[in-house]
Amino acid sequence: MAASASAKTLFDRIWDLHVVKDDRSGSTMLAIDRVFLHERTGSIALKSLADQGRRVRAPQRVFCTMDHIVDTFPGRGDDTRMPGGREFITTTRAAARAAGIHLFDIGDPDQGIVHVVSPEQGIALPGLTLVCPDSHTGTVGGLGALGWGIGSSEAEHALATGTLVINRPRQMRVRFEGRLAYGVSAKDMILALIGAHGAGGAVGSVVEFAGSAVRNLGVEARMTLCNMAVEFGAFSGLVAPDDQVLDYLHGRPFAPQGRSWDRAVAHWRTLLTHPEARFDSEIIMDAGCIGPRVTWGTSPQHEIAIDEVIPDPAAEADLRRRQGMERALEYMGLKPGIPLLGQPIDAAFLGSCTNSRLSDLRAAAAVLKGRRVAPGIKAICVPGSSRVKRLAEQEGLDRIFTEAGFEWRESGCSMCFFAGGESFGSRQRVVTSTNRNFENRQGPSTRSHLASPVTVAASAVAGRIADVRQLAAAGQG
Amino acid sequence: MEPFTQHRGIAAPLLRINVDTDAIIPSREMKRVSKEGLSDGLFANWRYRDPRARTENPDFVLNQPPWRQASILLSGANFGCGSSREHAVWALKEFGFRALIAPSFGSIFEGNCVRNGILPVVLDEAVIGRLAAAEEANPGRVLHIDLESCRLTDAEGAMHAFDIAEQSRYLLLNGLDPIAATLAEDQHIQRFLDRDRRERPWVYELPSA
Ligand code: SF4
After folding, report:
1. Are residues A258 and A359 in the same domain?
2. Tens of pLDDT along A161-218?
3. Number of folded domains in chain B?
4. Interface contact B202-A261, CB threshold 8 A
5. Whose CA is nearest to atom 6 of ligand 1?
6. What global pTM score does this model have?
7. Which residue from A97, A133, A443, A452 has the fewest beta carbons nearer than 10 Å?
């Protein structure tokens, strides 16, 4: 939508600043401030670019990390459990060196999952455009940066030209108003939103998250919200930057410093949606009504409040949706009409770019402290970056996890997705803090239930899908 | 890249919604740092009873004649959602698909299609349902897609208009390499950078690797 100059949205402001050239065809050549690569797809982009005899145009604004297929066992090296994985790692390292880009390599104290590293290093900043050949790049929207996932060919384009030619997305605002209840977090907010409006609810739109409940979220929680905007079908997610964001960024390794910082801050303060700006669509959610949410199926839209029963596909009027629900229940080994609460689980996973930051680990550790994982449950914690791991260890969180019976791993994507290496196993039921519960996502025939870090922790302790609010009550009583 | 102007082909019906890129090409099938050799892993979890042994699942549409020869796919909404892996498109292309028809596509996937010469056609769900039903009743019917007029004609001669972003249409029709097309406009990029460096210097002040 073309907004008038005086009534721009946050997105309009960022977009308009990056227009290199508007095309007659309606597409825009947009400047890209940062490109981030990882060993899974970045290696192909860099290699293919070199094969065409093309150069990376601005290597100092390009970064690469090793996260997707690296081993997360202690003492890891270049070998991985994924067949052929080593080739991805060595090819990426060689290609990154040849291109002269900054690599967060295995063993680097700042290595980690791309969407965790880019904010915590100050590589993503408010108002910047950032792309990565990975669908969860919108995570940086939590800082007010416009990030989105691209394919390898588009990555080549961004690397070679510093631009992308794209169509302006439509704009949606989602306002969460009210106060979150105890035990409820950004993860529950975004699951509730996707459940209410469908996994394709925001297709073609950039979503600005606003409202009192969003303003009250910490910066890391805003990243969780934006991380899953893509599971809502969105092009990207954004939250307007505020003082919390400035505090978060100040002093980060790649953030501006001194006079540059002051100039940047003056600009960042203008990154707001005008009160009269118009959106193509708007959704208002009552944050106070949201409880812990858990998925029962194989799409993030297959989710319910933890104390509800699994819906009956027979009640779904839409044929395709109904078939999707039936398939999902079969895959998940569940029946309609039964509660999720109390379903026995085999494993618990805390990690991924959705929920593996320090605040997530603290929340889970608070639940685990003085408790133990139920017998027979495989429980794993994978910090989002080596820095998060280090900070957590300085606070003693690692001891809480290991004493509770969790494995404490090196940083990486780990079992957020199955690449042919480590998996939870067929028909294993996993409560997971990740963002995708697709068929086979965490391993062949593995059954994934998406939930918040505290729900993962509470479920690990109970050995069943558990409500953290009940655990807290029992603990106090 | 091979230009896409018109195409005639058999359409395989796969009417599931939210077919994600991991279903199109499972992660474990992306074994090498290469864009090639992926078609064998296309839809591996559905196409094979045992993906490792490659024993075919006879119930899966692409294992049934004449759909083994399909070059058009009919599918449900949000096709290609999920992971950004371009391997999904490379696998579809290597298998022989030239056009995909769905009520909507995952946005990264849709862009990847265009960059690889595959036409994503957005049609109404009801229309796709009718095309699929006709295909199932009478397998092997040929659809005709004309990108110049943005029209699809079915075996009975019924025409269906579709919309596509002008930039995508332009790239597909001309089989253009988008990087070369952009670099040809380098003076615009240079002018932007000169101005932006003055206005947002912090964006460019970074330690070099
Ligand atoms: S943690 Fe999972 S969702 Fe995030 S980048 Fe890694 S594989 Fe993707």
Report:
1. no
2. 999 999 999 999 999 999 999 999 999 999 999 999 999 999 999 999 999 999 999 9
3. 1
4. yes
5. A413
6. 0.88
7. A97
